[in-house]
Amino acid sequence: MKRCTILLVSMALTALVACSGPRPVAEPEATSSGSVSPTSGGRLVYGLSADAAGFNPVTDQFASQSYSMVSTMVEPLVSVGADGVWKPYLAQSLKPNQNADEWTITVRSGITFSDGTPLTGEVVKANLEAQKASPLTSSVFGPVESFELAGPSAVKVKLRQPWVAFPYYLATQIGMIVASASLADPKAASRTPIGTGAFTLKQYVPDSRMVVTRNANYWRKGLPYLDEIEFRILPDSQTRAQTLESGGVDAIATTRDEDVVKFGALKDTYTVHRARGMAVPEYMFMLNTAVAPLDDVRVRRALAYATDRKAVIATLRSGLTEEADGPWSKDSPWYAPGGDYPGYDLAKATSLVKEVEAEKGPISFELLSTPDPNTMQGVELAQDMWRKAGIDVTIKQADQADLINRAVLGNYKATVWTQFSAADPDGEYIWLHQSYAQPVGSVALNFSRIKDAQLSSALDSGRSNPQPDVRKKDYATVQQRLRELVPFVFIDHLNVGAVIATGKVRGIGETVLPDGDKALPLTGSPVPYHPFSQIWVSQR
Amino acid sequence: MILHRLVRLAVVLLVVTFLSYVLLNLLPGDPTTQILGLSATEEARAQLRQELGLDQPLLIRYAAWLGDLLTGDFGTSYITRLPVAEELAERLPVTLELLVVAQAVALGLAIPVGVAAARRAGRALDQVLTAVSFALLSTPVFVLGVLLILVFAVTWRLLPATGWTPLSVDVGWNLTSVLLPAVTLGCGQLAVYARLLRTDLIATLQEDYITLARARGLSPRRILWRHALRPSAISLVTAVGLNLGALIGGTVIIETLFGLPGVGRLIVDSIFSRDYLTVQGSVVLISVGYVLVNFAVDLVYAAVDPRIRRA
Question: Is pTM beyond 0.95 here?
Fold first, then answer.
């Protein structure tokens, strides 16, 4: 009887599926198989953790999933190469004057938006002006004085100060160019942006799916390879991985180390792609240096000495990541080695704590954490380690919105934090420079409120000096000062964010830029993203 | 009677919306940070706060929102800048379908299970069904959901693990996409309904008129289904109405787990992004739905038990 019931239920389900015909916008179409060279056609279903808040680069805040979705339709002026150096994308060239306080952007000819209008210097100027006026991005444009048309395809950017890393910013949301029609109707552009991208929007169901289809008039000949991409929004990480296993999606973005370990072991069936170098963010405890007891550098150093980063990595990341001693990972060209970071040494931590306690009394503070179990586990681990050194820490849970707001206003003592994944070190300028540190209660982008003349001077020099070796020295100084002043107790370079795909999905991280250079394989945090125009599917 | 109920609905709405408005505004965190991001300046935040009316006192904001609501304007989402009514209209069919199918699954299974258990009360089948009911009651929906996905999607590949196909696009795929979430959501209710029905049926089967029916030689099956089931269903019908709240709460988890674009997901996302007006709109929708369903339940009583109609 029981077996019969199971059989009946199974038959009914099979019949239901069989009678339903092919799943609409879900099944990959046939592609040529067995070939190593890319083949055109086919469909990719890609699982993301969250929907974009909107697709308009001027008015909507972009998270990593936004970049995955929007970059199929809207492209940037600049991209970052595999060597970590900026390369022109929609731009033909970006040329600075001798002082680097004026840049001329010249766009490629023959590029049209999906509405048929051409990409011109005027459109680029209008985009950049809209970005400068946007409350989302205006702070980044602080050094920009004006934009001037310098010909039908060229825009001159006049700066108040030399800014050698300016092109890197154009590889982000700021440099993504939409058509005049999208600038004129930003609300419509939030749902249907008009860009120059390899795909155009076919269907969008908020919090469910976005389907983009091949742009037949794409300016890069022979691209894209895929006919269609469906981005499926699957917020739960476990069921997202299960959907990949069940064949419901072809690729997923994840931040779970379990997924990296599990799918990484199945090399014949899946490929796992992780970000490297500057693209990797750092996981840390951010300390508010403007409030007691963390305004005392000895306390901050004691915390770093008491933190066993190896233990945290083993517990939280299945040992997958590498210890961090600064904002840039060891495989980045900007990393400066330094044995001066206060690594795990409980005796030193205890000694510093005793020294401070003798002067100021017992050390205690509140540590903020988001309530998710993995983060809480890390926070409790730190609490235990710091308690062993004699520091009493209480944990307070705050959701993401509350935690960010407290960081911005300085209304915290210490908090878990993830940051520093800009392609160029200058991308961290506004987060570390003392001119962005405001008193507690005022909005400040320098959240740790660290004020250090040497650090800020190095950031200024790195921003303005065109000599690569001088910049390298400047950013070595930045790292050295961060190790000495410890506004952040660094834990690890958080490269467990990964894209996991079935074997038939090819080309992830193998993008070639318009001028023939290889692009940075993956970028962004917490989940890395990548371009889609050169992804293809094989039915090997 | 209807007028009386409408007045009651208005009072319930007023209380619920005011409380939710106050509670939302007590949440720490600033919507402007969510909208503008980390790198926005103080000036930009202040300007946005003014544009959204967030610089006004709470009571004035609530009154303005209520005034707009009375004219059918649910407001505009802070995050998507779309009318809240439009967002709710997009999401409501998903949640409604999920709720209806979950209730259908729960009732469709609970009635035969409850009847079978009552008929064989105290015997092996009853004990097995009781154990299964308690197991279902004590299993959190997210655990059950993951298990069902593992079996039906990953191992057997019979149903999609996640995702949603609207009814208007393809009926078959819509049913396959709603089945696992609905079963997951309905299982907890199934156990409650089955237990309630079993208990009431056992009591009914001891009534004099049932003894009389037996004496008249009616078959046990006929007695059970024709004469005992209807009067035993009053508690069940009440539970169906009252449990709507629990089911709506469950949709928040189920929609996240299975990636369904329903009202539950919208509420969660809106709370995290401090999108006050979207949460308020959802609260109105759910409150009205809840009160109306329970009103309908009152009407069903009369149909189920003629004694109530006569009274």
Answer: no
